[in-house]
Amino acid sequence: MTIWVLVFCFELAAGLTCFVYRHQAAARINQPHKSRLLVEKTALFFTHLFPFATSFCLYNSNLTPQQKHVYLKENYPQCLFWMGIDGFEVYDYRMNPWLTVTGVGAFSFIFVIAWYCFYLGVHTAIVLQRVRHHLAPSTYHMHKAALISLVMQLVIPGVLIIVPLDLCMFVVITGAQDMQELATDSMFLVGSHSMCQCIVMILSNSTYRRIVKEKFWYIFK
């Protein structure tokens, strides 16, 4: 889980990097000089630090073998034999408050960065609209298509990540046993987000759509 979270959280840094790049590409159309980008660099620094901090907190969220045994005995005595399975983990925020720190901290940070990405996207669209008359139609449509593609690649697959993780956090915090199966099954959505991201990237790009359409007709004609 620690390694998975470490790798997974870098997606936030990658998304912010794309928004900053797209924003700067639009902002420098009328301002060729380089700005200091203090806010952008600070945000990028913390988003690249975020995976290490989150994985470190999650690593400290695990329970000792004694705590696991007590938790299972009190809540799921029929599952005590799982203690013998290699890699089996139990998390409980009451026994180890590190889990609360990890959950609240991670979701708060993601919320802030998500809104910052939203601001960059909106401001990029405003900048492109202002300089539209100074650009060739093909250049304007290229910037616009790239921005729309980026937003779709992050927003649509992001739903497949945020909703299942929020559901799992709700089950952990409230102990809603009737929703545990649904929370476990929702991990399928998390695993499929990369496939959805690729599909969105292809469908939101006219060149990619044309190539796929040509290959499709070539194969099935």
Automatic annotation (TrEMBL):
Membrane spanning residue stretches: 98-126, 147-174, 186-203
Leader sequence segment: 1-15
InterPro entries: 7TM_GPCR_serpentine_rcpt_Sri
Keywords (A to Z) from UniProt: Membrane, Signal, Transmembrane, Transmembrane helix
Top-rank taxon: Eukaryota
Protein name in the entry: G protein-coupled receptor
